[in-house]
Records
---
Amino acid sequence: MHTPAQLVATSSVQFASQARWRLASRTLVGVLSFALLAAGIVYSLGSGSVNIPSSDVIAALRDRASVARMTGVIVHEVRLPRVLIGAVVGMNLGVAGTLLQGVVRSPLADPYILGVSAGGGLAAAITSLMIPDFPPGAVPLAAFVGALIGALIVYAIAWDGSGVTTVRLALAGVALTAMLSAFTTTVVVMTVEVGAQTVFQWLVGGLYTAGWTQYHLIVPYAAVGFLLAMLLAGRANILALGDDVAQGLGLRVEQTRFLMSAVAAILAGSSVAVAGLVAFVGLLVPNIARRLVGSDFRFLIPTSMLLGSALMVWADAAARVIFPTLLGNANIEIPVGIVTAVVGGPLFLWLVRARRTQW
């Protein structure tokens, strides 16, 4: 017969052992996610119209002068900015989706579904195509404002005075996305002389025009957004307990929701301004990350960052190299947004079908 003190000591040992196991497993997930991202970067840098061995790619990244001049140009000037932008866009969308799912406490939330990306896309299209003197460096800021407005409109439509439900939120987001996408298409049609082919590719999500200018444009927004997301991780964990419990613990629920939505808008808006309307990354990544590391946002956000980056890098490689080769026409390039939609769309339908709409 164990004494109460012995039972407490045994429980403490078991709890400490479980905590160490969770930390070790989460660390392993982080390491494997980083390895998946690194492998995707090396593969993408070496694949294309001119194939470069992985050893030469790594050598070029370490010291550009150690490889042939043409190899250095291809790796550093042609492919590297596109790969890095894809990684940052994936990071932004993965973290934005994680925050939005925390806001509504539903795995169905996603920047694309909830109208955030559509609002940012419309603002970016108007400022970049219809305002000739608008500074290019301010387009991500305009996209952030549009994304935030889109999120607020969806939330206001879904609000019935006592709260929101997942069904109303999803329906409002889908309706607003359709409407704003139609407006964005109208803007494109009205400015067809600007370069319709590139813009239409932007509408479905792509990295065709990715270069060092776009990379330096998006990185500050990504860095600030990720830092703010990590600072909000503790509040997000409390919010996940439910409104009543969170309020009882002293959390300002609606303020926290607004802050999380604003950070998601920063991340999603800057991504839209650079890569267009890439769909379902913010839906797919958080669901996978949550199954791997649990619902603690202190670990969920970094994992979503790594998995989102890896997903976008591999999806862009598939759109640029793998799928065209399988289709027998290596000269074409599929927009990366189509690849992510093909992967993420069925997941969204499965979540709806399985009624997995709450935590």
---
Amino acid sequence: MLRSLCLSLALGTLLASPAFAVEPGKAVGTVTIGGVTATLAVATESTAENLFDDKKKDTIITLTDKPLGGTDASDDIELSMRARKGELVVLMLRIDGTKLVNVGVMYKGLSGVDKLPGAWFQYAATGKGAGTLKMAKRDFDGKSYACDVQFAAAPAAPKKVEEAPAPAKPAPAKPAPAAAPLPPASTSSIEPKAATALFVAAMMKKDEHQALELVKTGIDPNSKDKDGIPILNWSVMMCMPAVVQALVDRKANLKYERAPGLTIMAEAGACPAAAKILSAAGAK
């Protein structure tokens, strides 16, 4: 009788367990953003410098609906630009040891990355680079988010080192091209909204010089774009530490939260250099 009971319990356990194991490099599940569901299929593992200890590395798990192609799995800037054009849907998990720090979300039409706090998710590691991630429908910044996915990430392919080309014969000197026009000496002649739009455009083009020039000429360090995102958050999302430092020096608000618990430090999860600047300035 006891033996039969044990066999029944064992059989019940087997039936209750997942019917399949996820293959390395694969994800099985979905993410729903604003009512639109995407099926996640690819899982890649890489590393990034820990936010507070440069001797440690955080694990980055990148989940996408399509193969990454030539894009680095930890390059959230390139990924966000591809996602904005509708080429990819991306979830990027940042894990410190066993703790899920945040999840970056990238999708069609979004400028930058929405970083959702890890505490919003149910995350469980099931092995090296493998685990489950779930979140019931949750509203954030005018969008609803939900996910239920199982993954087993494969290590990111090493970056190809290109051979240096053979030295060419020196070409005749050419006159330097004319410098791109910069904003006027003072933004007082530019409408605040226009100045903010120029700054955001510089961020999207990764034009650090133009962004710094706008800061120098007097843009409000606490101005926000049409979606209510402060320019400091933009400089953090696009990982431009020099611009972050310039805005911090001009007393940008470090206490703004785009959602409860989503502090500027949480948004700096993928940019350790910016996180260090913000932490030194007193951001929490």
---
Amino acid sequence: MTEVAAARWISAFLEAQLAEAGAARNTVLAYGRDLADAADWLGRQGKGFADASRADIEAYLVFCAAQGLAPATRARRLSSLRQLFRFAYDEGWRDDNPSLRLSGPGRARALPRTLSLPEVEALLAAARGLGRSEDDRLRATCLMELLYATGMRVSELVGLPVAAARGDPRMLMVRGKGGKDRMVPLSAPARAALTAWLSRRDAHEEAARIARRAAPSRYLFPGSGAEGHLTRQQFFLMLKAMATAAGIAPARVSPHVLRHAFATHLLEGGADLRAIQTLLGHADLSTTEIYTHVLDARLRELVLTHHPLARPHDPREDDR
């Protein structure tokens, strides 16, 4: 199988994922990187996707392990190959699926990194002072308040359409993975920050329309790049600057950590796990169940603090 043929297989598969499966853009990009790596390795063995055997795939996974790739990365690469071969079988490109019954490396269920409530409050305070202009500060405050109030993914946040923010909404419509919509409630501080930023944003858009006859942006957080909105990378850098200003190690702070903080703090406050699943946009409750570590810690503390047999033994009580 030539390099060109492998590229055609990958291109057709990715197009199908976007058009038919409704896969998120970042998911499709990850598929493409994984499959390109596998195609390169198979090509060096004189093989391709059309004639790769189960033994070839197993050898590729051994190669990945020898390269020092983490179990999660190797599991993802196997998953990408499984998706491709299933597609090839359905399309009639192969009459078998060599990835069937292959077991990948086990993936450890790591507890999510999170932040305490005082740390989140410090980040929100830092956002209100971030930037050289009042516009910068209003935008940073709105981004942070929305992120912590809703638990949105960073791609969902930066890609919010401005239409969703009109009319002082109590709820926001968010388009998540696979094109699935969900409603998320807004807190009072988030609504106030949204109103303040929207007013300033609209004024800038109107000035640009008059001065340059520029078409108005459809996004709540416009950007000058190809995507038309603030990029994930730009927000990531903003968040690191907020962490530094708040006295928190930047390595501990990311958009996903704040998503974890949102879920963790809700659970600590007594929220139902299924409600959190809905707010986060998880398709499967098992994904949300990782946050039950919060309940485990709280129940353990409750027992150790209040159960009489859990208290340390005091020898003086033997003399009573």
